[in-house]
Amino acid sequence: MAAMMLNQHSTTGFYKAPVCKGLIGTMFLTCTAIHVPMMTHLRQYLSCQIPQILSSAQIWRLLFNRLTFLHTKDILCSVLVIYCFRIFERRMGSKRFSSYLLGTCTIATILEICTVLVLARFNIDYHSGGYLPSGLYGFLFPLFVNYYLDIPRITMSNFLGMSVTGKTITYLLGLQIASTSPATVVSALCGIIAGLIYRANLFKVQRVLRVPDVVARCCDKALGWAFNSNEPKQQHMGATLDIQRQEQAELWEQQYLYSRAQDFRQVRGQGYTDRLIDDLPADNGLMSYIFRNRRRQGDGSMDVEPSNENIQILVDMGFDRSQAVEALRTASNDLETATSILLRQ
């Protein structure tokens, strides 16, 4: 699974995603430090008991509690999720993305504290005496809200009658992170609610909880050399991980169809090739769609105007509005095909 998500055809590294790179680096450094025998005493600083920090005003423990996971499986799953979610940093920009993480993590932490106190009032103890689970729940799970609402769903295969996409794998990773204990389930739900609150901009949280420009510039100058990545040679920017996989599969399909057409053209002539293309089975591939589109251009059945919803989805993905409209017209308002057309441009 990791190889599929991190292969050369589906990624462009951490180019324009220094914050995601920094999150992964900080998480690994912290995890390594607390597992080194000489530094195991640092593990105590990751523990955060709500009644204790409120009575002793040790609010700094909340910050350390958010730095890393204690379980290896959570760390590996979170690395894959962060790597997938780096598309949001490229879309928003590092400063706005940092403000998003700051805002959602603050809201999620407040919700967690309130939840622990409410459960304790009803004598329900999911947190082993009020201890918050250590990890990046307030950073990761709010992003699942944007992932669900903003990233197009592209079917890759079907299993037992259910559609399987690249997004399915990401959701399963999120479930794996959240299912460690009842306390982690609460943390994950608080993170999702925080994402909804920040997205709806309730109580003007987007204006209040944001990174100041001065802090952003200082961090860029001080740490930019360590977290900035070089521009990749193969450019697939402006697309999600599952769209890039779909694009690669369609390129293979295109090469295969062209190869078959050339072989039959040489043996049987052009007329037989045209009949061969007309007899191809219908599927979700771009090339077969284009062939069907060409066959029906004459009767005007493919003149479908693009919907405002599909146009906005492509614009939010980083494509120019005029190009998005033209691609949707070519694809007869089919979002998956229009996305593939824009990627090839």
User: What kind of sheet is the major sheet?
Assistant: 2 strands, antiparallel
- Please report the number of helical segments: 17
Rg for CA atoms: 24 Å
Provide the number of structural domains.
Answer: 2
In percent, how much strand structure appears in the residues? under 5%
CATH H-level superfamily title of the largest domain: Rhomboid-like
By CATH, the architecture of the largest domain is named Up-down Bundle
CATH topology of the largest domain: Rhomboid-like fold
Q: How many strand units?
A: 2
Give the structural class: mainly alpha
**What gap, in angstroms, lies between the N and C termini?**
29 Å
List the helices and strands in order.
HHHHHHHEEHHHHHHHHHH
The whole-number mean of residue pLDDT values reads: 77
Principal-axes geometry comes out as: globular
* Strand order in the sheet with the most strands: 1-2
Low-confidence stretches: 1-11, 268-287, 294-302
CATH class of the largest domain: Mainly Alpha
* Helix proportion: 55-70%
Pfam family, one: UBA
Protein name: UBA domain-containing protein
Domain UBA: 305-345
GO molecular function: serine-type endopeptidase activity
Give an account of the 3D structure.
- It is a single chain.
- The protein is mainly α and 345 residues long.
- It has 17 helices and two strands.
- Helix 2 runs antiparallel to helix 5 and helix 6 crosses helix 9.
- It is globular.
- The protein starts with a helix and ends with a helix.
- The N terminus is likely disordered.
